[in-house]
Amino acid sequence: MIFDLIEELLPEIRAARDSIDREGRLPLPLVGRLRRAQLFGLWLPAALGGPELHPIEFARAIERLASADGSVGWCAGVAGTLSVLGASLPAEVAREVFGAHGALAGAFRPKGRAVAAPGGYRVTGRWEFGSGILHADWVAVHCVAEAPELRFVVVPRSEVEVIPNWDVTGLRGTGSHDFRIDDVFVPAERSLAAFAAEPLLPGPLYRIPLLGLSTIALAAVTLGLARAAIDAFVELAAAKTPTGASLPLRDDPRAQFAAGRAEALLRAARSALFDALREAWDHAVSGDAPSAVARVAMRMACAFCAEACARAVDIVYAAAGASAIFEGGVIARCFRDVHAATAHIGLSADNYQHAGKVLFGGDDPAARFG
Q1: What is the spatial distance between Cα 113 and Cα 122, in angstroms, rounded to a whole number?
Q2: At a CB cut-off of 8 Å and minimum separation 6, what does 341 contact?
Q3: N or C, which end of the chain is more exposed by having fewer CB within 10 Å?
Q4: 288 CB contacts (<8 Å, ≥6 apart)?
Q5: Which of 31-45, 201-215, 319-333, 346-360 shows the highest mean pLDDT?
Q6: What is the spatial distance between Cα 254 and Cα 32, in angstroms, rounded to a whole number?
């Protein structure tokens, strides 16, 4: 059902790409259709009426959306990741937040403070990278409470000030502006212990650490971007005859090599990511605590996925020649978007070092928090 709805939306998403880039946000009519299709709540618990997708199905959904537009895939991925909080909030609060197809934006870095107050917390801070905040209903942020306690708090978007500063080369339509919260009261029931809250609903999905889940969407976006770039290159190669040549670009051995290598990189990236997701799911289903190596495996796979997909896009971008450089072209957009994606800390090459440290028997935050 979810995938049928995605396929129905793809033509509209593709038609909106130029507007999304130009306006720096998703068009509100498209946002409405994404909401109604539950594409901002892919991990919302089934008990709350959500899809509660298997991680591989979640990655496939974000990959498909991103193949039409990277910003749409990114916004759906971020909101979908935050919808997992529905399993840890009291049922009445979760219905308030996610009912009527609510969409969340948020930030994981503890840039704010949550000061205890009667019945809850008073929250103040400024956060970066609020992807989707221009169309969100609620904002979930990571705060320092009484040191060393960290908490997530959920705040109505109406009580959040957006600071317009998302002037970037790629993923322009995510509207990932900074935002500020100034001494807003948050009831205790709209807060939870960060990375330590026990889910209130059953299900293997909610046993997977939140930070591990958060990187899946980001990696899946790079899969979709690589797919779109390769497909655009195949289409271009059939139609383009390079200057000085007598045959289409597709008959050039160098173009054939580029297409084959890019496709191999994409397939390797996809296999690595899905293999890590199966391993994480198996641990969650068994109920066994994953080992430190298993905890960093997903981060390692996501970093590799992003690296390989960016390389695949680079290859077809170079092979396409001058045809790839025009602003409105699919390959140019994928090039910008995939390099914006790989700049995210969740996909950075630093994750290899975290994994290596654990493989050498050391302790690392990536293994403790997932």
Answers
A1: 8
A2: 70, 74, 170, 171, 218, 221, 222, 225, 306, 310, 347
A3: N
A4: none
A5: 31-45
A6: 44
Using the Cα atoms of residue 59, residue 3, residue 106 and residue 74 in order, give the sign of their dihedral: positive
Cis omega (within 30 of 0) on the bond before 148?
Answer: yes
Domain count, the chain: 3
Least confident of 34-38, 149-153, 217-221, 329-333: 149-153
**Residue 91, CB half-sphere, CA atoms under 13 Å: how many?**
7
What residue numbers bound the domain in which 188 lies?
Answer: 104-193
Supply the pTM of this predicted model.
0.95
Tell me what percent of the residues of the chain surpass a pLDDT of 90.
79
Considering the domain boundaries, does residue 203 fall inside one?
Answer: no
Q: Which two tokens stand for residue 241?
A: 């005859």
List CB contacts of 49: < 8 A, sequence separation 6 or more. Answer: none
The domain boundary residue, chosen from 97, 113, 129? 97
pLDDT value at 301 more than 70: yes
- Residue 40 is classified by DSSP as T
Dihedral angle sign, alpha carbons of residues 107, 7, 204, 89? positive
- Please state, in angstroms and rounded to a whole number, the distance separating the CA atoms of residues 128 and 255: 40
Question: Domain end: 152, 170, 193, which one?
Answer: 193
**Sheet containing 104-117: order of strands:** 161-163, 178-187, 120-127, 104-117, 138-144, 150-156, 191-193
